[in-house]
Design brief:
The protein is of the alpha+beta class and 78 residues long. It is built from 1 helix and 5 strands.
Amino acid sequence: MKIEGVEYRMQIASDISRDGVGVEVYRVAETGEEFILEIFRSDSDQTYALYPGPNPIPLAVLEHVVPTARKELGPFVA
């Protein structure tokens, strides 16, 4: 996906050790990919959390990723 002229990649990843699933976002560049953020749905405590990467996150990326994460991560698993 392209946001403000920058290419990003999203992937959904299950994490058994943390008992949940997350949407991970990476900035795609010619030199490789850089981790930007993860939005994680914890089934153990029924919360959503944002785990930022080491660099500032453009607001346009958050505005796109948050609603996508809510839709793709789905409801909590009991």
